[in-house]
Amino acid sequence: MDAMTRIERALAACLTRADGPGAPPRLAAAMQHSVFPKGAPIRPRLCLAVASACGESDPAIADAAAASIEFLHCASLVHDDLPCFDDAATRRGRPSVHAAFGAPLAVLAGDALIILAFQALAWGTATAPRRLAALTLTIARSVGMPGGIVAGQAFECEPSVEVAAYHRAKTGSLFAAATEAGAAAAGVPCEAWRMLGAKLGEAYQVADDIRDVVCNPDELGKPIGQDVALGRPSTVAELGLAGAVGRLQELAAEAVASIPACPGATELRGLILQESKRLLPKQLAQQAA
Amino acid sequence: MDAMTRIERALAACLTRADGPGAPPRLAAAMQHSVFPKGAPIRPRLCLAVASACGESDPAIADAAAASIEFLHCASLVHDDLPCFDDAATRRGRPSVHAAFGAPLAVLAGDALIILAFQALAWGTATAPRRLAALTLTIARSVGMPGGIVAGQAFECEPSVEVAAYHRAKTGSLFAAATEAGAAAAGVPCEAWRMLGAKLGEAYQVADDIRDVVCNPDELGKPIGQDVALGRPSTVAELGLAGAVGRLQELAAEAVASIPACPGATELRGLILQESKRLLPKQLAQQAA
Question: What is the pTM of this model?
Answer without folding.
Answer: 0.93
